[in-house]
Amino acid sequence: MLRLEALSVYYGGIHALRGIDIEVADGKIVTLIGANGAGKSTMLNTIVGLVKSASGKIIWNGEEIGGKDARDIVSMGLVLIPEGRHVFPNLTVDENLRLGAYIQRDQKKVRQSRERCFDLFPRLRERMRQIAGTLSGGEQQMLAVARGLMTEPKLLMLDEPSLGLAPLISKMIFSIIGEINRNGTTILLIEQNAHAALEIADYAYVLETGIITMQDTGAALLKNEEVRKAYLGE
Fold first, then answer.
1. How many CA atoms are closer than 13 Å to the CA of 54, on its beta-carbon side?
2. DSSP letters of 83-150?
3. Structural domains of the chain ordered from first start
4. Which pTM value belongs to this model?
5. What is the rounded distance in angstroms from the CA atom of residue 177 to the CA atom of residue 185?
6. Tell me: the pLDDT tens digits for 34-62?
């Protein structure tokens, strides 16, 4: 589905990604773990066209998409939920969701997508008319994910979805990510909570200072002594 080949990216004067190779198979959850500043967010921003690569390829279903406009990339089914939620704080929950469906012209499909989001996040249905900026952090994260789902993505990319959330809310978010995947959406996940991310991942990569240093199934990396010491606090 998605393949990065020898991707290199400079961010300012920093060589943020150094020839990385990653593959995200259709229907799977793939996670990327690494310390702050390793280049994880840069990779997602490059995939969706917000950052330009210096070299290498980004291949989506056999087509090179590097250099394409971000709007075109979203229209192809790749959607990023950025770190920090970035909901529209002065709009209602419902208005945020409708903005998430901006590429969709069929209003019947928009309503169907919204109902699916409310089924996943019943709390958003209860707060449909509430101003997004007045929601709790966990509710805003639910809204950010739901807004991304309004485009009916083929690949959903999430950047630190549990950041700043209470443990119970974080656990719920991971459970919903799993449900989204079971419903047919491929997931590429970046997450500081390495244990939770590896638990749900089919496959995982470790990124250190712009270089992939390890890769294996999520279950295997959970048992890897080096990973346990560096990222799981053991």
1. 14
2. TT----TTSBHHHHHHHHTTT---HHHHHHHHHHHHHH-HHHHHTTTSBGGGS-HHHHHHHHHHHHHT
3. 1-77+186-234 (3.40.50.300)
4. 0.93
5. 9
6. 988 889 999 999 999 999 999 999 999 99
